[in-house]
Every structure is written in C-alpha cells, then in structure tokens.
Amino acid sequence: MTEKKKIIEAIPLLVPHSYLTTESNKTGSWRFLKPRYEEKTSPCSTACPAGEDIGRIEMLTTRGLFKEAWETILRENPFPGVCGRVCYHPCEKICNREEFDKAIAIHSIERFLADNAIRNNFKHLLERNPAREQKIAIIGAGPSGLAAAYFLTLLGYTCDVFEAMPEPGGILRWGIPLYRLPPSVLQNEITRIEDHGVRIHTGKQISRHFLEEARNHYDAIFIGCGHSRAVRLNIPGEDIDGVEDGLKFLLSIRQNKNPSSNGTVAVIGGGNTAIDVARSIVRLGGKVIIIYRRRRQDMPAFEQDVRMALEEGVEIKELLTPAKIIYDNEELVLTLRQMKVVGEDIQGRALVEPDGKTPEEIRVKRIFKAIGEETAEPWHSPPEKGEGILSMNNSVLAYRHQGPALVFGGDLTNETKSVVHAVASGKEAAIALDIFFREGFDAIRSTLKTCKVGDGPSPLSMEIYMGGARRSRSPHVVTYEEINTDYFQLTARVSQPRLLREERLRTFEEVDLKISAHLATREAGRCFNCGLCSQCENCFIFCPDIAVIRDNSSQGRHINYDYCKGCGVCVVECPRNAMVLEEENYEESPGGKSGSS
Amino acid sequence: MKKVLEGSQAVAEAVRLAKVSVISAYPITPQTHIVEFLSEYCSDGRLSARFLRVESEHSALAALIGAASSGVRTFTATSSQGLALMHELLHWTSGARLPVVMVEVNRALAPGWNIWTDQTDSLAQRDTGWIQLYCENSQETLDTTLQAFRLAELVNLPVMVVLDAFYLSHTYEPVDIPEQELVDLFLPPYDPKFQVDTKNPCAFGSLVLPNAYMEMRHNIAMAMEEVLSRFPEIEEEFAGIFGRRYGPVEPIACDDAEIILVTSGTVTSTSRQVIQDLRARGEKVGLLKVKLFRPFPSEMFRRILGPAKKVAVIDRNFSFGASGIFAQEVRAALCNLPSHPPIFGYIAGIGGRDVTTDTLEEIYWQTKKDEVPGKESIWIGLQEVDHATGSS
Amino acid sequence: MQLEVPEREYMYPGHVACPGCGAAIAMRLFMKVMGEKTIIVLPACCWSIIAGAYPQSTLQVPIIHSAFETGGAVASGVRAALDIKGDTETTVVTWAGDGGTFDIGFQALSGAVERNEDFIYVCYDNEAYMNTGIQRSSSTPYGAWTTTTPGQEWKKMRKKNIVEALVAHRIPYAATANIAFPEDMMRKVQKAKEIKGARFLHVFASCPTGWRIPSEISVKIARMAVQTNIFPLYEVEGGVKYTINHTPKEYPVREYFKLQGRFKHLTDSDLAQIQEMVNEDWELLLRKAGKHS
C-alpha cells in the first residue's frame, strides 16, 4: 500500500482546472460611457407655481406614506387642503402620463392627503433656520400674506400679519364660495401657520401712515392686500340700485347676511369672480346669464369651473359688452353691444371690436359687476421700474436707502390671479428678503436662480433654497419619450365623485366629494414619478456584470465602476429616467476608471 | 476458475470484476457481444453499474467524460468507424486526464464495409494520448483489461486494450477467471484525484492561453513516460497474485537471432509456430511480440533488435503516403543507434485476409534473400486485379 | 412592479462578456434560482469564454467544459455517475448556445431527451454562431444577415422550432423564457428544478454585437420579441399540455426589426411577409393551447 502511495505522489497533475474567480479582471476599463444615478425634475413640478415636488409626493402616497407625502407638500405650499380643491392644477396639463393614457389626478390626491392629515390630526412642524433678528410686517392675511409669513418664519424671521377683516383668509374666506372650499379646511391650515409662530392681528386696517411708522419697528413690509375695489363699467346707469359689486356680494354670503335671489340675473365678466357669483346665485334660487365681451375660450376663469357653471344651468353669452342700464318697471334693462373678433393677441386671446349691429336688450332683476378688481389704495400698487426696484416673477421688491424694504405680492403683482400664484409670491418674497438681508439687494436676482425647480422660467423651491435633498437633482425636465413605458399598464384615471347636479343646486355643500385611501393610492401609483428613483431595482436585476451592488445608502445601491462596462442597459430599463449615461471622463482618475460611485 | 469463454465475454468478465460504475457504449460489429454481455450483467445484477444506451459512439465517450469527471470508474468498447467517430473525444479524454478504459476491437475502415481484422483503426489514433496495449489471446485480454484500470487510475491517462476482430472477439478459448477477492486486492475501489464537487467548485477544461497550455501538454508527455516504468511494476504485482505476466514486449528466441520478426495481435500466435519450425530447420530466427505500443518502449526495441542482422516488421495496417505503422515506429526507435540492422516492412492481412504460416515463411525467406529492403513496404499476398472487370 | 429577486449571486463580476450581453443576464437569473447544488456542463459557445480563462472561473458552481456537440451526452454521464454515488440533491444542467443545441448538438440532445435523462437543458439563444463570429445557425430567424448569409443571401429559411422538436419526444417539461421577463423566467426555472426527467428551457438572449444594436437596448429588444409575437412565452408539459404565459399588446413586427442592424436590408414587402409568417405561427400556437385569436 505504501508503495502505491509513493507512485501517486510522483508527478503532480497539471490540468486546466480553474479555482480562482474572475474578480481580478477590472472590466471597468472597457468603458467609454458611464452610467450614474441622477434624479431629475418632473414637468409637473415646474408647472406648479409653488414648485411642489409632485413626483415624490405621488411616490410616497403610492407606498401609503400619507403623512410623509403631506409633509412634502408643506415644504412648498402651506395650503394643500385649499389648493387640492380650488387650484386650476396647471401641473395636470403638462403631466407626461397624458400621452400614455390620462394625466394623473394630482389635485384629487393633494386634497386626499390634506383631508387625511386633518382627519388624523397630524401635527407637523417643519425645520426652520436659526432665528434671525429682522422683523417683517405683512399686510393682508390672504393667501399671499399668509404664505409669506409662513415661509419667512421657516427662514427664521418674526412676522406680524395685519388683517382688516375680523378673520384671516382674504379671498379664501371672503371670495371663494363654500361649495368650493369649506371653512373648516381653511381654518385648519391657517391654524397650522399660526402654530409655526406667525402672529395674525385681525380687525386691523392698515393706513399709509403705518408705512411711515413701520420703519421704526420693521425691517421689511410685505404688501399682499390684493385688489378689493371693483373696476367700474363706466356706462350710464351703473349706479342704479340693483347694480352690485360681485365680490361684495360673495362677501355678504359669507357674512351670513343670507341674501336670496329670485328671477334672472346678469353677471358681467369672465373671471373666477364672475363664475363664483353666478354659481352662488344659482344656489340661492336664481337664474344667471353671464355676459362676456370675448369668446368663451378666452375667459380667464378656470375651465373646470366654467364647465360646472354651465352644468348648473348658467348661460354664457359671448362677444357682448354692456352699453347702458336703465330701470324700468321693477326690472333692469341692460343694453348689450355685440363684438366681433378681429384677431388674436400673442397669448391667443381674441381681439374684439364693436360689430356695429343693433344692440340687444335683456331684462334682469339684478346686475353684478365682475370685470375685475383694482387696488383699493394707490399705495397698494407696486412701483414700476426704477432705481432700487426689482421685478421678479411673482413679486416686486422696492428698496430706498432709508426705510424698510417693501415687497408687493399676490394679486397685486401676479398676472394669473390664483391661490397657487399667491403662494408663489409669498415664497419668492420670503426668499428674496432672506437674500436681501444676508447678501444685499444686488445678490437677489442671481441667488434666486439657484433655487429654481428645473431649467427654464420655473418656480422656486424652498426645499432647494434651504439646502434639502431636492437640491441634488438635475434641472433637466423629463419628457415622455424618456420614460420607459414598457413598465406601465394602461389604467383608468380615478374619477372623483361629485354631487349630482340636482343636489348642487339646493345647497352650498362642497361639490367635489372625497376619494378613499385605496383610490388615492391607486391613482398615485399611475404616476411615472418622472426622474425619481422608485426603488424598482431594474438596474440591479438586469446588470450583466453584477456591477450594481445593494447597500445601506439612501440610494439603496451603488455602481461598482471596477466592473461596469458602460453597456447602458440599467439606464434604458430605468422606467423613470432616474439614471444618466455620460461619456467617460478619461482625465478624471489618473490611475484608471475604477472605484465605486 | 477456468471456463471456455468467447473473447467478448472475457472482456465483460474483466469489467465485472473491476466493478465499473458507468458503462456507455454503442454497438458496432464485432464489439457487439461485449456490449450485450455487459447489458445482461447490469440487468441481472452481476454488475451494479449504470448502462447508458447512447445514440452514437461520440456520445458514448462524451458520457464517459462526464461520468469520469464526476469521479467514477468508467468503461466503453468500440471498433473501426465508431473509434474514428470518437476521434475528437479521444484527444479530449487524455487532455482532461480521465482514466477511461476502452476495449477496441481492430476492424477495417470503410468504404467498402469490411468487418474483419485490420489494425489501421486503432493505430490511426496513436497520437491521441491514449495508452495502447495489444492482446494475443483471451486470457491476455482479461488480464490486460484489469491491469488497464489500475494503470489508468495511476497516471491519469486513458487506456485502449486492443483485440483482433473475430479471432479474439468471437473465438472461444479457455480462460481462467480470477476470484473477486483477489481482484479486489489488485484493484482497489476508484479513488479519484479530482472530481466535480459542489462544495469546492471548479471549472474543468476552460480556455487556456498559450502561456499555460504547453506545460499541461508536457505534463501528459511526462505521464506517458512514467507508464514505461509503472506498467512493468503493475505486471509484477499482477504476477505476484495471479501468476501471469506478459511484458511490454515479449522476445522469443531473439538472443542469437540473425533475423527477428516483429508482430502484434493474433499474428503473433501464428508466428510462434513458424519460428519453431524455422528454428528446427536451423534458421537463426527470432520473434518480438509488441504488446505496449503507446508509450512506445523504444529502449527495449533498441536493446533487443540492435544486435540482429535484419528485422522484419509485419504490419496489419498502413499509413498511406508513408508505410506500415509498426515499421515506422521501429525505424524511429533504432535510427540513432550507431549501427542497426535494416528494417524490412511487410504489409499483410489487411481487411481480415488470412496471415498463414505460408505468409510468414514467405516474409522470412524474402527478408533473408534481400540485402536491404527493396521497397519501403512490401505488400504480401496481393493478387492481380483485372481492371476491366474489377475482379482479382 | 417590484420583482422579488433572490439576493445571493452565483456569478462573479469581471467576466469578459460583451457589454449588454443577454447570455450573461440569463445565466445570472438562472443561477439565482438553481443555487449551489448544481453542476453545469458547458459545450462550446460564447459562455465557454465568458466562464473565464484558466485559472479563473466566473461561476460559483462546478463547470465541466465539453466539446461542441456533446451537451446532452456529457450531462447523461454526469447524471449516471451522481446516481451511482447516491447523490439525489445535485441538479445536472447543460448550458448551451443555439449552435450546440439546434445544430451540431442536436443529436446528443435528442438522444438524452429520448432516454428521459434526468437533467435540465438550457439553450440560451442569440440566434447565430456568435462565438465564432456571427455565422448562421438553424436558429437564425428568417430575414437575418449573418456573415454566412450576407447581402442578398440573407437567411430565407424559417427559424427551427426547437421546442416543438423536443415536444415531439414527449419531454416532461419544455418552456420558452426571455431575459426581459425575469419573473416569468425564474418561475419556470424553479418549476423545472422540481421536476424529474428531461427538461428544456429555450431562453431568448439578445446579442448587441451580433444583432447590430446599441448595447443599452439589449433588454428592450428582448422584450419586443415577445411583444411582437416573434418569440412567444409558453410552456408545454408532458409533450401535450400547452400554456401560453403572455398575450402581448400586439406590436407590428416592423417595430422590432427596424431597431436592428442585422435586418436593415429588409424591404416593406419582406416585412409584410414576415408579419404574415409570425401571425401564422401565433395562430398555430393558439390552437395548440386550445385558444382562438
């Protein structure tokens, strides 16, 4: 036996048996393109004037993280409950999903998140910057003033809000009817703003005198008192009894003065106020004819509200302007001149001229003027260009070397008069003032550019300004073509239930009804989350080179550049375009292109 | 125990006694009886092995490559066309250093179809790295097959045990079948030097670049050389237990021979008779039987044939464009001796044509007559062919 | 859309597959299901090289490299050896390309399946002899350019239907799979793992190098093959029971062809003809599955 052993030991075998791994081949050196995780900007967030991080909000909602989703809204907008109801949601018009099947019902989800927060009594105080010494006075507790106060408080400032009316809210409380915005929702959101430390002084009418006094107490003043004076028609008979101001009428409803309305009524104008007046009259029992001097599609009122008005029986007569009003036999006779379209302006709105035909007459019980509002006081108007005057997207900052900085915002400065634009004003003003105090007047414009959402003329983000995670995203706005739609199924958009037409006419109850958590989650699941990583792990699953390694980082994985050959499969299979493939930079690492990201 | 067995059954008995684990073979005349016997043994439990009824010889050897890589004792048998079909994998088996044992029944290659004995088939595979052992009778066949497993597993090279078609495969001879206990002493259970192991994973036979391949080939060459010393050792051990020994070559009456005939296979048996007769008539003739062909025991040939005056090599094969293959190998072994006898090459018995005592005598007298070989190879027993009718 | 993928890798990085190689993705997914107790028989194909040059191996399981045509036969031998050693846990797998399955390896495969050898045979199909430089195989689809079907000699024979050929052997389990459908593929691998007898998986593995596509659309192209009905996903049990796993959205085949350089010579009428052929084959499959279009 031992002899056999000796023989076996004699010549060791040399055979092609491979025991070592291939890990010593750093195939990363093959690369000429390099993939990278990079979150980008979703188009909806650039269309939202408040710059809400919509893609992320929907992603959190899909996962059932309703509180976190709601907090994400609050970073950019203190009024999710309000906006989820009354906003004209420009975000949905630009939603990439529209090209696939139907745009996401972003407003339905926002409303759900806000209502859910109220129902569950969520308390959330956002992080704020260390306390600053400057004090700011805010005139008007409307959406722009309250937003300005909110954002300034987050930036560390002390704010006093002065409101003439007995309760805060501005147009939210006195202008928007109950069937669009229940007061409890509004109150909840205003209370949260107060919880952050904002002091609201109601019943305080501010005069010009105050402005002069203010320099002793305040370092800046935000003027957001809006337009409270109706624009006059300037036609004979305008001051006859029965010809009323539309906005005042809405106010009277809210003040519980219980006006009723029978018979036919004319509302002159095409904006949101005109529609709100019309739909309120309908609920009070009246019949409404809206008179508008351009075409229906030119009406500045929000499309969904115009539609609902028509559903509720409101009649719209287009291309007519009022010429004169006379009183006759307990009725008002309104003479209307016909207009014709002679062209379109650069925004596509019709340019009109009188037609020259015989004017028509209608007989109505009351006439409401809603052709626009203007500033109540001359000092409400923001100054035009000049030294020390900075016109930004949603606000104007005026600074003379003595006295506090004045910032005008809200309807005073916004071309589109909406709640969300008012919020944008407040945010812009807050950031501009913070830059003003820290870096000076000349730094404002350039520093503002650094907190934009996406590229192009886009909104500001408070999260980016305050250095949050959103700052690291690429400003590239993701297009539909960049989404890998192979990973999505055609799914019907949620249909938010509404009161039936008959029910609507009898009451000022909220028209749009709530959706369930299940429906909200499912709808949010339709969102492409453009440019955001949803942790689907396609990159990990499909990598042929096992170069995507799971880890404990916030990304959840990293690319092992020692082995990544730059094939790009991960980038194409990322459904949400949250990766980018770039040319390899040969000069970067002197020793070769290895290491991990 | 002595029994009269068909040569094929002697093979089957050896395989049974060796306790082979996996057999994979495809039938081809005249190997078929080997396959049939083994099939029967597996079926009735005399041999507990897996018998794979593959669909070709190529697949047969492929299956054994798989089985041997998995660490079990393996066996196959084939002939002629089947061996030719296996050619690619013959190289593979030796390159993979797998101790496969094969019984190869020498049969002529087609076309035309010829099922009778001819050595060209096995010799055409002489470069494939298989050890080749040629047998003269059934007893030698059984003994050599047992020794083949031992040798293969020792040096990790495959072994081909070669028999003549019909003369050995289908002829009945008395054979002493050893007892299992004695065989177990000589041939212990297979202890592989390597096998696939999921607990210690390895890739067998991957891409090898020029910087490593040559050494692996040299390793095979060294193993072949080792056979020259290990085979006699194994024979010694075998002789110790069973009392029989054959030697890599067997010289008969060579010491004072002036002319030495070199033969292999069953021709050797006939030659023994012829040598006896010639010696009785006073001719100084000797016979050298070749058993171990690969590795070629050159040293032994030099020692035994060197002193003779003439050597006549009888080839039952031919390498077209050259000469009989045994003759080539003998010439190569002797060419560097300062003086060596002329090597006469004779071709006889191709395609199963009889090699009779007359044939062998003719070869002897022809060799004695000529000073030097008239031609490289002299074909014995060719008949005239009428090219018009194709008849001879 | 989150897929449950087992964490453990059985493949090391650093292998030399082309960037975007579908065969590499296929093996990675396959091994995640198969696990440690697997022996891979690997006849000549791209994976012979991807598996690593001596002394390296890219897989964490044993590999027996084998000659080109021997996939089915070597596996039969390994299985026989394991059986006689009493190993009932290790699965024997042959991992071969289309050349070693459809053409030169067909005999050994057919033989092994006819004997109902207990092993899994996986053919990763990149539709040509890619390892030797993109030559035509019987798996090359109708219309394709290869180096042996160049110019006007583009392949005018239909792709051989290997699954049907094996179904004719009454193979216990045969299925098609695709790297772009990892969930479906892994389910089929698991199913195959649990069956005894001969099992065959035909895996569609895109080849950026041979198909003349940019490497980044490697998975996308594989998905489109299913979506256009060119490579339907289905299973056949016992040689008789057909189950279609995926009814696609019905893309026209043109969408698939226009992205690949190997098809760029096809005219509109060629594409129309191919569309008809694809429709015909799909109808045939539906009938076998007992469905109608």
Structure report:
The complex is a heterotrimer of chains A (597), B (392) and C (293). In chain A, 30% of the residues lie in helices and 18% in strands. Chain A has 597 residues and is of the alpha/beta class. Chain A folds into four domains: 27-39 and 533-583, Alpha-Beta Plaits (2-Layer Sandwich); 51-124 and 476-525, no CATH class; 135-227 and 375-449, FAD/NAD(P)-binding domain (3-Layer(bba) Sandwich); 229-373, FAD/NAD(P)-binding domain, CATH 3.50.50. Chain A has a seven-stranded mixed beta sheet, covered by helices on one side. The radius of gyration of chain A is 30 Å and the shape is globular. Mean pLDDT of chain A is 91; it is low at 1-8 and 590-597. Chain B is α/β, with parallel strands linked by helices. Chain B folds into two domains: 2-242, Thiamin diphosphate (ThDP)-binding fold, Pyr/PP domains (Rossmann fold, 3-Layer(aba) Sandwich), CATH 3.40.50.970; 249-379, 3-Layer(aba) Sandwich (Rossmann fold), CATH 3.40.50. Chain B is built from twelve helices and 16 strands. In chain B, the strands form three sheets. Chain B has a seven-stranded mixed beta sheet, with helices on both faces. In chain B, helix 1 packs across helix 2 (32-44) and helix 10 (298-305) packs across helix 11 (325-334). Helix content of chain C is 35%, strand content 16%. Chain C has helices at residues 22-34, 46-50, 71-84, 99-103, 106-114, 162-167, 182-193, 208-211, 218-227, 253-257, 268-288, and strands at residues 38-43, 56-57, 63-66, 91-97, 119-125, 173-178, 198-204, 234-237, 241-244. In chain C, strands 3-1-4-5-7-6-8-9 form an eight-stranded mixed beta sheet, sandwiched between helices. Chain C is globular, with a radius of gyration of 18 Å. Chain C starts with 21 loop residues before the first helix and ends in a 5-residue tail after the last helix. Chain B binds chain C through residues 21-22, 24, 48-50, 52-56, 58-60, 62-72, 74, 88-89, 92, 196-198, 201-209, 212, and chain C through 36-39, 41, 48-49, 51-57, 59-67, 69-70, 72-85, 90, 107-108, 110-111, 114-115.
